[in-house]
Amino acid sequence: MYKAITDRIIVRLNDCPQTNKIKLPESASRNTGTVLNTGPAVRGVHSGDEIIFHVFDELPLPQKNLAVVREKSVLGIIEKNKLNERRIYDTTSKQ
Q1: CA-CA distance, 58 to 41, in Å (whole number)?
Q2: Residue 3 belongs to some domain of the structure
Q3: Cα radius of gyration rounded to whole Å, the chain
Q4: Residue 60 is part of which domain span?
Q5: Which residues is 23 bridged to in the sheet?
Q6: For residues 6 and 19, is the Cβ–Cβ distance under 8 A?
Q7: For a disulfide at 24, which of 13, 17, 52, 75, Cβ 3.0-4.6 Å?
Q8: pTM of the prediction?
Q9: Which stretches of the chain score pLDDT less than 50?
Q10: Close Cβ partners of 44 (under 8 Å, ≥ 6 residues apart)
Q11: What pLDDT is recorded for position 5?
């Protein structure tokens, strides 16, 4: 198991992404995934969150389905509503 440091996030990459009612292309599976763990400086996402991140900012790990991204590369959190539809929420907006 890998442990993230500083502002890094360990992500398990998704196989076939689908957001709300829009089917994303296969290449999009490279930039969506589930957070496995976060470094101590990460504040916007938590373990278990499904995220979308900038596609060229990931660092692959020896396990093919894992990657490391910086928190600033996270574009949003994908949340499921009661109908199990997925929606993307911006993590950078002030609450």
Answers
A1: 18
A2: no
A3: 13
A4: 8-88
A5: 18
A6: no
A7: 17
A8: 0.73
A9: 17
A10: 71, 74, 77, 91, 92
A11: 94
Rounded Cα distance between 83 and 36, Å, is 25
Residue 79's pLDDT is 82
**Backbone phi, then psi, for 3, in 5-degree steps?**
-120, 125
Q: Does residue 95 sit within a domain?
A: no
By residue count, the chain amounts to 95
In a domain, 64, yes or no: yes
Residue 65: which CATH number? 2.30.33
State whether residue 55 is helix, strand or coil: helix
* Those residues with Cβ within 8 angstroms of residue 58's Cβ, 6 or more apart along the chain or in another chain: 11, 30, 31, 67, 68, 69, 73
Position 15 scores a pLDDT of: 75
The reported pLDDT for the residue numbered 92 is 61
Does 82 fall in a domain?
yes
Is residue 24 classed exposed, middle or buried when 0-12, 13-18 and 19+ CB atoms within 10 A define those classes? middle
